[in-house]
Amino acid sequence: MESCEEVVIVGGGIAGLATAVALKRVGVQSLVLERSQELRATGGALTLFPNAWRALEVIGVANKLVSLYTTFNKEHVTNLMTGDYQEISFTHDGLRDGLGVRAVHRKVLLEALAEELPSDAVRFSSKLESIKDEIIDGSSISTLRFEDGSTIRAKVVIGCDGVHSVVAQWLGLTTPVRSGRSAVRAIAVFPDGHGFERDIQQFVDDGKRAGIVPINDKELFWFMTHTSLPPEIEMVSDPESIQNLIIDNLAKGFPPEYINVVRHTDPTTLSWAPLMFRYPWDLLIGQTWRGCVTVAGDAMHPMTPDLGQGGCTALEDAVVLARHIASSSRSSSDGFEKAIEDYVKERRVRVAGIIAGSYLSGWVQQGGIGWWGGVVGRFVRDHIFYRFVFKRLVKVSEFDCGRLTCGEC
């Protein structure tokens, strides 16, 4: 079976759905192909900064979420090795503008995006196997072949298929690498209320960093990043075993309130995986587009979560892509190619910088890796990072990705 589409988006996560919504806003129809049987919500929740909220406002989704989640005023950082305490404010002008900083359920965000699309705009259980470029009637066409034997011909292909992107591999981008750290993430549920203030709590230790992020009065998002363990240990997938490993081992010596949060974990939200990233220079000089094929979100710029910018930059990508496609001459493949090229040129320097900043932030906050790295990392973290560096790094979240001026806007 073969069909033809103008724009095909591979991957129905945040980047894929947001790109489809943004394109719809400018009058461009697209088809989202998701390999899973339903919307994916791994990790339970994520924190969205002003740059993300500005993008959500542009595509008409922010209003669905702001009434459900309140903003944070500050973050408390406790050094468990020294007992030192520092406070980071989220109330200065740059972070207040753009609806502030809020934690949202990943599933709620995905559903809010999906509701903006026609019922037939997302096709589930579609596993991409290969891409082939062809010239048909003088125009560049991509033929996508799927595991079930079906094929789709598309004028534009946007890979939003995650860290292990098939589209990125086809383009020739280097495979993302391990950072030397891993992360456990989940949502804890307190039916009678958790009693935490609307502030982020963070704890740093030797080779570990953990946090508690309120979502609402009854739910908390919690995480722990740590120096990667032997593969045979990190292959454990049973939620109860992972939870016990955190309580009995990784979080030993952590405050009782953190342990209590872990004990209240909803096992369906728990995930444990190595933290991956793409070398920043690969985005600057690598093959991030070819003809009318490109990537967005984690498929383009996988990064560690230490600045909270993975989902935020994916939302930026969606707006920038739609703006360039809307302003292009879509009567020929040359118009689409120019739009894709301009999108990549606008995005690659910014996201390469955020990848580097996220890696640096995580490495320092976790106290470095290795003996010498640990000595240097802990010194920088304890005496320099939170006082001087972090405030500069977090300014990436004040970015405005621009507006859409066509179609429904």
TrEMBL record:
Spell out the InterPro entries in the cross-references: FAD-bd, FAD/NAD-bd_sf, MOase
UniProt xrefs under SUPFAM superfamilies: FAD/NAD(P)-binding domain
| The keyword Ribonucleoprotein appears for this protein | no
Alphabetically ordered keywords of this record: Monooxygenase, Oxidoreductase
Q: FAD-binding domain spans which residues?
A: 6-355
The record's GO molecular-function terms, alphabetically, read: FAD binding; monooxygenase activity
Where exactly are the transmembrane stretches of this chain?
A: none
What family name appears in the similarity comment? Belongs to the 3-hydroxybenzoate 6-hydroxylase family.
Q: Which PANTHER family match?
A: FAD/NAD(P)-BINDING OXIDOREDUCTASE FAMILY PROTEIN (PTHR45934), OS04G0423100 PROTEIN (PTHR45934:SF1)
Q: What name appears for this protein in its UniProt entry?
A: FAD-binding domain-containing protein
Protein's organism: Acorus gramineus (Dwarf sweet flag)
